[in-house]
Design goal:
Elements: H1 2-5, E1 19-23, H2 25-34, E2 47-51, E3 76-84, H3 86-94, E4 101-109, E5 135-140, H4 145-152, E6 162-167, H5 173-182, E7 189-194, H6 203-208, E8 232-237, H7 243-250, E9 261-266, H8 268-274, H9 282-285, H10 288-306, E10 311-317, H11 322-332, H12 334-338, E11 342-345
Parallel strand pairs: 1-2, 2-3, 3-4, 4-5, 5-6, 6-7, 7-8, 8-9, 9-10, 10-11
Helix pairs in contact: 4-5, 7-10
């Protein structure tokens, strides 16, 4: 119907479309096949968004094949589906020669892709890969491993300037660090949201049983030592574990001349309110190991602040009790609080 209606390609809306949003791709791709492939007529699209139907939980029937090479000028790709089929994703990527930005968000990945923390190279590599000089945004609920394994093995490598990563599983930490290290030569902006599934959300149990994000001989950290072009580093956390942030900041050296901002957004007050914890019990409940890492972080942040080259910003959100938040953060970050470099976002 589409191709009959717009038989003249130069007057077709497809010829003038630069941003294409595909909702319910399982329906759209079937219609495309039935009408002889009209998706390929959108050959001047610069940004493609494929958004799956959230009601089709666990569906693996979405085919990305009709989009292979459909627009040689595509620079921005955003795939938000329930089930991510890695082979199709990377075949699609290989067909887009100038792709710069990519968003991948999914509840699951191919069950045949085995998750491994050892960052192995893929058995079969595509013959081409795009430059990837823009932004990568990853939010994969069942783990980064299958996607990251292929991404890190692309022939041209990863050269993203901005990484936005949702860290949900302990096993993903090596993948996450491998990506940061792999992009060290180009990385300018880094945002990591830590919401590790299965870890306590309240200070109270955490004080007695701190989570372990890696083995004792392999402490969890993000190596920023070679990312000397980094301008903006943001860490968002929903639990009071800050060991990994502290270790990451310790890898910053005087060579990071471009670094302008360090942000730490604390969301654990939301988790506390959800479980009904009394914030008045938080301060005495913080265990020694947790407190020590906070104090180390406090000292680092003050050092950055006093250097006059980096302005750290600490934001505490989601609780309407300003006095109690100030008391809590004053205990965790005494020097930082004293110097007034903590912002309180008290919500509505």
């Amino acid at each position: 119907m589409w191709k009959k209606t717009f038989s003249d390609r130069s007057t077709s809306p497809a010829y003038h479309t630069h941003t294409l949003l595909v909702g319910c791709p399982e329906v759209v791709t079937v219609a495309d096949a039935g009408e002889g492939g009209w998706i390929q007529t959108f050959s001047r699209v610069v940004k493609l968004v494929v958004r799956g139907n959230p009601m089709n939980v666990g569906s693996t029937e979405v085919s990305l094949t009709p989009f292979y090479g459909f627009s040689p000028v595509l620079k921005s790709l955003h795939i938000l589906v329930n089930m991510l089929q890695n082979s199709q994703i990377f075949d699609l990527i290989s067909s887009l020669p100038i792709l710069e930005d990519m968003t991948l968000a999914a509840n699951g990945t191919d069950p045949d892709d085995v998750l491994s923390p050892d960052v192995p190279q893929p058995a079969v590599q595509p013959s081409t890969s795009p430059p990837f000089t823009g932004t990568l945004d990853l939010a994969l609920l069942l783990g980064m491993g299958p996607v990251m394994r292929r991404l890190l093995g692309l022939p041209s490598g990863a050269h993203f300037r901005k990484l936005v990563l949702l860290w949900l599983h302990n096993a993903d930490f090596r993948w996450l660090n491998a990506l940061v290290v792999g992009c060290s030569g180009t990385l300018e902006c880094l945002t990591i949201t830590s919401y590790v599934l299965g870890t306590p959300t309240s200070f109270l149990p955490l004080a007695h049983n701190p989570p372990s994000f890696a083995g004792d001989s392999d402490p969890a950290s993000i190596d920023l030592s070679k990312a000397t072009k980094l301008r903006d580093a943001a860490f968002i956390l929903t639990s009071p574990d800050v060991e990994w942030i502290t270790l990451a900041l310790q890898t910053i050296t005087p060579e990071h001349r471009h670094l302008q901002r360090i942000s730490i957004c604390v969301l654990f007050t939301l988790a506390l309110s959800r479980v009904g914890a009394d914030l008045g019990q938080v301060i005495p409940a913080i265990g020694g190991s947790v407190s020590d890492w906070w104090l180390d972080l406090d000292h680092l942040l003050v050092q950055f602040w006093e250097s006059h080259s980096i302005r750290p910003n600490i934001t505490c959100v989601m609780l309407n009790k300003e006095k109690e938040i100030r008391e809590c953060m004053g205990h965790l970050l005494p020097e930082t609080t004293e110097r007034g470099i903590i912002d309180l976002d008290l919500g509505q």
